[in-house]
Amino acid sequence: MEFQQVLAPLNQASGESCHFDIPEDWGQGRALFGGMAAAVAFSYLQALLGDAAKVRSLSVSFIAPIAPGPVQLKREILRIGKSVQHAEVRIYQQEQLALVLLASFGATRTSVVEHQPELIDISAPVLAQLPKQGPVPEFTQHFDYQLTSGGFPFSGTAAVQMSGRNRFSQQSTQSPCSVAELIALIDAWPPATLSWLQAPAPASSLTWSLEFLTTDFAFTANDWWYYRAQIDAAHEGYSHIEARFIDAAGKLVAISRQTVTVFA
């Protein structure tokens, strides 16, 4: 099932809570792919606020693993100001809190402070592509990957930087990329620290934050998007990773920060 088809029932969801079923093929081992979980939460929230609300930042706490299957979502608008709104979504599974997403939405305003980042060179050659078959998470079948620096998980590559391109594969839509799709594209990349390991080991995201420079994307989810990650620190079983997500024209569109637990 295509990504937007999975999320479609949330577009008509009403009320402060709803039940939702997540397909099996979006799994990641014993748990759901975190990008799908965050996209589900955001889509349920956006259905309440409408497409006119521009998301500026998201903060996600992964409280407990979510398995593919039935979940319950609860949403709440925390505050509505003159130009900024704050809202929250919680995902429960088997009556246990599993995920909390906080979102800040801000209307466009004029300002004397205006600085646009320079275009980024995304023409690096391809080092490797992630295979569709073999010991890879189930959800990766929905994406294409081109690695341009660093290494894929469990390759024994001790690099502090990782970069590459990815896109949704075999999606029929040609509409501009949605925020939910961008959330999934960014989180589809494995934590950069996993390339240091020489064999599979448990790891999971503890917290994840996203800042959006724009939500008016010029490309589709089927176009190549560029990802560049930097490990700021890795210590005592936790790694801290910052990443840039860039469109096919070299324009920076989002900044990601992630705290990852590694059990190896």
Q: The CATH topology is what?
A: Porin
Largest sheet: 12 strands, antiparallel
Can you list the strand order of the major beta sheet? 1-5-6-7-4-11-14-13-12-10-9-8
Q: What is the overall pLDDT average?
A: 93
Alpha carbon gyration radius? 18 Å
User: How much helical structure, as a percent, in the residues?
Assistant: 10-25%
Helix/strand order: HEEEHEEEEEEEHEEEE
Distance between the termini: 34 Å
Tally of helical runs: 3
CATH H-level superfamily: Acyl-CoA thioesterase, double hotdog domain
Taken together, the total number of domains comes to: 1
CATH class: Mainly Beta
**What's the CATH architecture?**
Beta Barrel
Q: Please report the total strand number as a whole number.
A: 14
* Structural class by helix and strand composition: mainly beta
Shape: globular
| Low-confidence runs | none
Write up this protein:
This protein has one domain (about 5-110, about 125-260): Porin (Beta Barrel), CATH 2.40.160.210. The chain is about 10% helix and about 40% strand. It has three helices and 14 strands. Strand 2 (about 25-30) and strand 3 form a beta hairpin. Helix 2 (about 35-50) packs antiparallel against helix 3. It is globular, with a radius of gyration of 18 Å.
